[in-house]
Amino acid sequence: MSKVLIFNGSPRKKGNTVVLINEFTKALTESDVEFEIFNLNEMNIKPCQHCNWCVNNNALSCVQKDDMNDLYPKLLEAEKIVLASPVFWFNISAQLKLFIDRLYALQGEKEYAFTKKKFAYILVYGANDPESSGVFNAIGSLKDMIKYMNNEIVGTVHGTAHKIGDAAKNLKLLEEVYELGKKFVS
Ligand SMILES: Cc1cc2nc3c(=O)[nH]c(=O)nc-3n(C[C@H](O)[C@H](O)[C@H](O)COP(=O)(O)O)c2cc1C
């Protein structure tokens, strides 16, 4: 199995998303599965300019020179990808959205070249009630994106944690994310 790629959309280095990613990767390590974590907030990822250079040249890369160009080959090679994000303003974080927009470059001539990948999602929010958190908007956006590119969602975990340290106290959420890790690599 190729390395599992994990994209962290939270800006907080010791935030709740990181705690959940660590719990997820515990399951991967126990199964001897390699992974790599990308902290999107620390990367140079510019917004898609919709110049269509990628499409017109069937480039599978972008004319903008930034960190996405190192990611494209890794993304094409990967079998399994994890997207983790806090809910910001009733959707995924801007850091994750910028990254997703840039997947536009991976279209290929007839159908998406970035296809047939397995995805897992980890989402965390401050609200006590998922209905009012906006997490279902985030899940809806991610689901549409995956379907459009003919990728597959293996599982989604979401739950409440607001302040730094909250996720470590949410035992149900930790258990769910660990189980998702196990399922993801089984
Ligand atoms: C800009 C911003 C917007 C937020 N919007 C929401 C929201 O729409 N719904 C919600 O339940 N929590 C919202 N939150 C709370 C975060 O989702 C919550 O604190 C989460 O634990 C942060 O994850 P992190 O520690 O991994 O960064 C928001 C926080 C920030 C900073």
List keywords for this structure.
39% helix; alpha/beta; 186 residues; binds flavin mononucleotide; 5-stranded parallel sheet; 8 helices; globular; 18% strand; Rossmann fold
Report on the structure:
By secondary structure, this protein is of the alpha/beta class. It has one domain (4-184): Flavodoxin domain (Rossmann fold). The protein has helices spanning 16-30, 53-56, 68-77, 94-101, 130-133, 135-148, 166-169, 171-184, and strands at 4-8, 35-39, 80-86, 118-125, 152-160. Strands 2-1-3-4-5 form a five-stranded parallel β-sheet, sandwiched between helices. Strand 1 (4-8), helix 1 (16-30) and strand 2 form a beta-alpha-beta unit. Helix 1 crosses helix 8. The model has no long low-confidence stretch (mean pLDDT 97). The chain binds flavin mononucleotide.
